[in-house]
Amino acid sequence: LGLRRYVLASLALGLLLADLGKLRLPADLLRAPRRLDTSESETVKLHVQHSLDIIRELGGLPPGVLEVVAGHHERFDGSGYPRGLAGAAVPLSARIAGLADAFTALTSARGYAEPVAQHEAVQELYAASVPVFQRELVGALIQGLGTHPIGSLVELGDGSIALVV
User: Fold this and answer.
1) In the chain, is it the N or the C terminus that has fewer CB atoms within a 10 Å radius of its CB?
2) For this structure, is 22 an active site residue?
3) Over 90: is that where the pLDDT of 95 sits?
């Protein structure tokens, strides 16, 4: 995407700190082996503000980190939270963070869902890329991961089968 090094550093640190506020939520809520009800979901959404509060208390972090943390659940179509921003109102770093967060959620075990393979997660994100995620960012994710995830069997042009390593 041609991002400057300091933007990438803020993005990486922001992603590492984005869910820090979950420390202030009930552990049993975060480990629930089912989908959360509306009230519980609203409580979990508070983690964004808790994360920002903790980071501000720590101080000394670049504004780009706060931007990532504040916006990692915003969505390009406005369906995200906490502010319901849409389009260019969602900072680029937050859009990237949101896509990374969604990919990680799909490919990780959760109490209520088994992880999906990387290629299945990419397909799901690509299908949602027009309304929810910016198509160019999903394309960059696909390029970064490669079209054939590690461990995939592929048929080569000569008909032989190869394992992606």
Assistant:
1) C
2) yes
3) yes
